[in-house]
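ugh ok fine here u go
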Amino acid sequence: MRIFGLLLLAAAVSSLNAQNPVKCHDVGGGITTNFVDASDTMGTATGDLAGGLGVHVVAQQAGPNGTLLITVQHHWVTANGDTVGLDQATVTLFPTPVQGFYAASYVDGVNVNGSGSGRLAGASGKIYGWGAANFATGQLVLRYSGQVCQAQ
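structure:
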């Protein structure tokens, strides 16, 4: 009897998933932002999530081997007006021999959290970024790639 109940539950879940399948797709592109003050950037994104992007620095701390760990909150609006809901994330800045110039990486990625709008409402996934930050000029240039999943 217990096995029969489990089979019915599995069939019900399978039916729900068939009615609301999740479709994941790869995303990628570039990001260029400039610092507009000590803790905020504004810029653009190209590629699959093309549009406007701002980053707010929430906190920073020294990391291992001279790295800087910067906790940030992204604000991303696509060209057609959809917003990408993202969790806070940590970008690791790796020092270079050039004063004020860092290699940058979102080592753990940025979680897409479902709080977006439009076609990205309820979306999940993870996006990774890597590139460079030049604090002497206040510019950041990154590439991004990852996966965004949406219920259909």
